[in-house]
Amino acid sequence: MYYVIRDSEKLPPSIIHEDNYFAWYNPMKKDHRVEFRGTMNQCYDFMSTRYPQSNQTTM
Prior knowledge:
Order of helices and strands: EEHEH
Oligomer: single chain
Number of domains: 1
Strand order of the largest sheet: 2-1-3
Shape: flat
Number of strands: 3
Largest sheet: 3 strands, antiparallel
């Protein structure tokens, strides 16, 4: 299980594995938001449809 995590509105969301999620975040605190849960491919699909501007690279 993977999570799409948003720490703040200014930073792009991150995809993180559930083992790392529970090591780094306390689900009881309100310092982050879980936007999606699923497999890695589902998380990438969610990110590509929900945040297309954050996937673009600039030179």
